[in-house]
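Continuing the series of single-chain predictions for the mutant panel. This is the parent chain; the variants come on the following pages.
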Amino acid sequence: MGTMMKNITEKQFKGFLSVHEPQWFTDLRQNSFNKFKTAKSPIYRYGEAIRISPIGFSFDEIEAPTTVTSIYTLHYDQQSGIKIYQGKELPLEFPQSFYEEFFSGALEKPGLFHQAFSNDFLFIVLPPKPMLEPLEIHQLISDKILVSTICILAPPHAEAKIIFYKTGTGDIPVYCSEDMRIISQRESNIEFISIQNLPFTHNLMQRRIAKLEKDAHLLWTDVVLGSNYTKSEIITHLCGEGANTLNQVLFLANTKQRFDIYTASIHVAPHTTSNIITKGVVNDQAKVLSRGLVHIKQNATGSNGYEKQDALLLSNDAEADAIPNLEIENHDVKCSHGSTVGQVDADQLFYLMSRGLSKNLAQQKIIEGYFIPILEVFTDDSLKKKIHASIMQAIDAED
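Parent structure:
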């Protein structure tokens, strides 16, 4: 396999750089670009018979991005004390120490291409108190290449609900790279909900990483509906005693979509708790791989980790694979996993059709019921309706 995007030249990279960024960040970009030039293309193979690769798209053909940014629309309480920075460049006054807080230590570094060519920045500092209204982030992607870096800092005692909508326009192949970082400091309570409904021309590489300090709580919910190809990683590092995370991924794949989903909970500190639930439906000739990991490290005494992966197949040509993993370095813990891949219950389908529903409508009702146990976790009826509406819209698009 060749090197990634090998046609991008040093001259193109130099033209991408801005004089309005800090020198330390330019140096970081240059170092990443130098390593990127000899890096290998993404690996799509996960074993003897599991291969998840995009249809009609090659990462080797990506050109150097421009500095055009995506379109963000944000809704929030202006009196809450939240601080937000967004733009296509890292500003000169941006402190290196703040950047290092997000991209060193316990958290993995960004990919080389992403680090070199980030052209879209959104940084959010939440107030050290409960936010009474949700923060809504609407991202509209229309550029041919978008490389987004998003950082969210939750200071001690912060409490917020963040809803992130990712949509796009256009009928040409689009490449989107997103690297999101969340740092939840002690006793913060964050609920992050993402609803991705990109056009089928878009290809998404998504990496979301969180660091939880003492007694911090983070609820991830990722709804994956759109795109031609999505490679998603959601990794939570439980670094403080008493930290807790619930990670929920809902997906609905049809036509020839390809989803490669990876979720991980890394227990570093004692008495930490994690729960991973991945649940989805695969139709037509779509293919989904769900990989999960609960890693309990040596010092994480008294921790509890769980993961469950379920997939429902609606077509003989649909494919779903589940690969759960446990890595346990301390035996004074609780840890378990499970996975199921199955088809629509023929008796349920027959019953609904005998009541006058068409086969398509009967399947829609079964799919709707399949997601209800996850939706019931949400106590906010308004949010529950928004997620439900997005799922139903995707189901209707299958017809």
